[in-house]
Amino acid sequence: MADSWVNSAAILGTDLHLELTRAGSRRAALMGALREAVRDGRLAPGTRLPPYRSLAADLGIARNTVADAYAELVAEGWLTARQGSGTRVAPRPAPPPPVPAHRRRTADRGSGGHPAGATRGRRAPRTAPRPVHDLRQGRPDATAFPRTAWLASARRALIAAPHEAFGPGDPRGRPELRRALADYLAHARGVRTDPGRIVVCSGFAHALRLLSGTRLLRPRMAVESYGLAFHRSLLGSAGVRTVPLPLDADGALTDRLTALDGVRAALLTPAHQFPTGGPLHPERRAAAVAWARGNDALVLEDDYDGEFRYDRRPVGAVQGLDPERVLYLGSVGKSLSPALRLGWMVLPDHLVDRLLDAKGEREEWTSALDQLTLADFIESGGYDRHVRRMRRRYRRRRDELVATLAERAPHIRVSGISAGLHAVLELPPGTERSALRAAACQGLALDGLGDYRHPDATTRPLDGLVVGYATPPEHSFPGALAALCRALPPGRTSS
Ligand SMILES: Cc1ncc(COP(=O)(O)O)c(C=O)c1O
């Protein structure tokens, strides 16, 4: 049998041409043909494969051969098998996006605390395979989006929407959503607000862009010495110069804010420092607020993953200490999906109109239907249920990560694990770049701590890996962990 059309259009919904022309066993040939079909997109993620019996009959090979090939492709992460839903093509890990220009520029300046040449060396070698495992931070498990519950909310919201919802709306966002958020943020995050102080936006980055447009952040703004380069670059292109604030295990050293000249605002991640992972110490929270009060300044609180806490008491929002000085910014980027582009700002009363001026009359709005859906999702309890479910899932993964490292790489310390969707693996000095290269060779995408370091930071650079354990779909998490362990620098052997 050289070549066969799989005659399973009824099952696949499409014809599938598999060529079993390779030399060697039929199992290996079938696996090769299926991998190729997945790779070139003929078998899209989620496609259900034919049962063993029909594929075996179509190809003229033994049923067990098909069963073995499927099982092996499941183990490799190409396919998934679930009771009742058959064997399907696995969701494919997206290749890492091209490095954006601003990040390339930062890297060329040696932002990771490495000389420029050394930073270039961090890139994967040309021969590195395309990533098959994804442990990049910043993404929730995309396969866990609560499609059914979201659809139910969308349906209810659409039916209940008043006619005016389909006309030009209010730049503050739908009142239904602002009401739902005011309740939710008060009980879940300790935010002090009413709907009138909330402005809906399309996410944290959008909030930052809008705030930059108010000139409130100029001329200089303090940021944590480790953070997202994308946010720094966004501020930079709006004419806001960022000044790094040193960090330790208790978060940013906010008592240093008073010494910074010309700084009118500070951007902090108090619930879970991004990316190093500790909560901001209560005294430092108080120091940040005292600084803002004493210097007519503002604190921007980025609560990017505040819902996800595991074994420590919830840390409420700093905004609760002074709603007139602290702007609380959040989004569904981690709790639901970054693709929804839905976020919120809780503003001091006196800044609402200024922000709305920056937002403008028409353009920068999020779809009213998505806003209404989120309002229903929150009010019907769907959001809470989803967050609780994901908290259990991510906690399990976090535990698995910690246990695997304890067993296979006990010399590596893991930090930042009591909350959030990522952990930091602290590496021996000077080993970050080689660990990243080793990861690329294992087909594993992830970031090093150096990628997050402010180019002007003066503290000693930290070597570490930022592991986004929420990112892979359930079935490929064990494979991603195994690849991670293979990429870690070995411990010292006692002689
Ligand atoms: C530090 C930090 N802040 C905020 C966000 C949320 O960003 P957005 O709402 O623009 O998706 C993220 C998401 O990755 C993040 O990592």
UniProtKB/TrEMBL annotation:
Region: Disordered, residue numbers: 84-143
Which key words tag this protein in UniProt? Aminotransferase, DNA-binding, Pyridoxal phosphate, Transcription, Transcription regulation, Transferase
Report the GO molecular function annotations: transaminase activity
The residue ranges of the HTH gntR-type domain are 24-92
The protein's superkingdom reads: Bacteria
The record ties this protein, via Pfam families, to: Aminotran_1_2 (PF00155), GntR (PF00392)
Does the UniProt entry include the keyword Transcription? yes
Keyword Transcription regulation on entry: yes
Identify its protein family. In the C-terminal section; belongs to the class-I pyridoxal-phosphate-dependent aminotransferase family.
This chain belongs to the protein called PLP-dependent aminotransferase family protein
From which organism does this entry originate? Streptomyces luomodiensis
The uppermost taxa in this organism's lineage are:
Bacteria, Bacillati, Actinomycetota, Actinomycetes, Kitasatosporales
